[in-house]
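Q: Could you predict the 3D structure of Small ribosomal subunit protein uS15c?
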Amino acid sequence: MIKNLSISVSSKEENRGSVEFQIFSFTNKIRRLTSHLELHKKDYLSQRGLRKILGKRQRLLAYLSKKNRAHYKELIGQLSIRETKIR
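A: Sure. Here are the predicted structure tokens for Small ribosomal subunit protein uS15c:
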């Protein structure tokens, strides 16, 4: 799965400021921090950082879902993340 993502994002390397690339990089950071926290359960600063990154990704996903629903559906399918809840 991750090999496919690196291939699909390698074309986006030129546009690191795009919403899709930012969501992709936040997802990688989230996965890395999650595996770190499985080993270090009392690392509260990393937990705080994880919550901040989750919030940033959630806001970017909400923006993308409003602007371009097709790209949003494709991206969450590729990254295998759940769809955000709509309030």
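Q: Anything worth pointing out?
A: The two ends are 31 Å apart (CA to CA).
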